Amino acid sequence: MVRSDALARLHAMQAGDLPVHGGRTLAYVYDSGLAEVDRIGREAVAAYAGSNGLDPTAFPSLLRMENELVGFAADLLNAPDEAVGTVTSGGTESILLAVQAARDSRPEVVSPSMVLPETAHAAFHKAAHYFGVRTVVVPVGDDFRPDPWAMGRAIDGTTVLVVASAPSYAHGVVDPVSEIAAQAKAKKVRCHVDACIGGWVLPYAERLGRDVGEWDFRVPGVTSISVDTHKYAYTPKGTSVLLHRSPALRRAQYFASARWPGYTMLNATTQSTKSGGPLAGAWAVVTTLGDEGYLALTEQVLGAVDRLVAGVAQVDGVRVVVPPDATLVALACDETLDPFTLTDEMTARGWYVQPQMSFRGRPATVHLSVSAATADVVDDFLEALDQAAKASVAAGPVVVDPGVVTFIESLDPARLTDDDFEGLLATSGLMGDPDAGLALPERMAEVNALLDVAAPSMREALLVAFLDRLARPVRY
Questions:
Q1: Interacting residues of 45 by C-beta distance below 8 A, sequence separation 6+
Q2: Which of 126, 253, 311, 354 has its CB surrounded by the most CB atoms within 10 Å?
């Protein structure tokens, strides 16, 4: 029997999600504010939802769209004529493939490593975990950028990849790519630029007269770049582009296997079967907006960032951590207010901003990913931020019970058991009804403060346990 209420149920469930339009969700989603462009992208996704990108000979239209999308990205990033690229499912997959290709291009290296700034995206650590590549982490300075000569000194005979960000996610600044790439090139090591956030913004920012430095394929020594289309190309979720300077550099990315009686497997990404929907949606949006459309959207979003940064300076207790190079802004709080309370107060006023935990002696911050759609509501955001800051001061700082801190410190993250996790939930007052699952409060400041006092390894273990509790079957 076919149920007829699935879509109604779907829309009812979706009502509890963060809004993906309107410019008020300042993480996870990127909104152009253009309803017609959004419609075109969604219709293209639907039209190709059943198509399979596994075999380009079976679906040649997908191959054509991928090559055109890669070509647009290659032109945007000043790639040489021989450059090649692949459409992936997102920035993390692009980064995974860049690391995997670098590792597999050097089979003679027994214990491969990569050199990256401490501000590099966590996806590089995920790649290291998956592919057995050691991370050599270089600290950043007060400007949140690494010393390129320190990066160079960290390169040794085991290094298969050097990493730079354009910009880094947490603070929104572009690393000194030219100098880092020069260090890598001098030692004959690949250099990957993570431009997942900035790759579709910085080229247009440069055309608008902004000084963004050198970071793309014009820089000698840059061998690959990742850029996400589902971020500032404003396409439907599920696409990124990984570009290599030459086919030879990409070859190790491929996987082929004829060691079974079925079809010979041949993959350019970590996926085999993959829906053609996200690729079609990306192609349709990029084709619709084109170069001039993106130039206009970039002018719009950078104008919003400028106004936001200027307005934050007028809010007591809150400041911009570092002048942003693109569209990402990090906010810090002074001793009069708590950043986790501030995020709760913003949520209460209809804005989602992302808390970032303290790290290596640096205090917790608040992250903003500004979209073009946010340009129309910057004044509303600043008014809400001012109100939220005042409310945070009135509420006072979040204090984690010393007993909870002691309990966390007594736990071993490598051996965290279900009983340990339940004990922490009970100690912190989050257990609720055991039959009803986790009883998270509507306000998250206490939870975030608890995580903030935990060491990074314990933070990871606690969140894995938390996710494991959330991801349980619903049985009818």
A1: 236, 277, 278, 280, 281
A2: 253
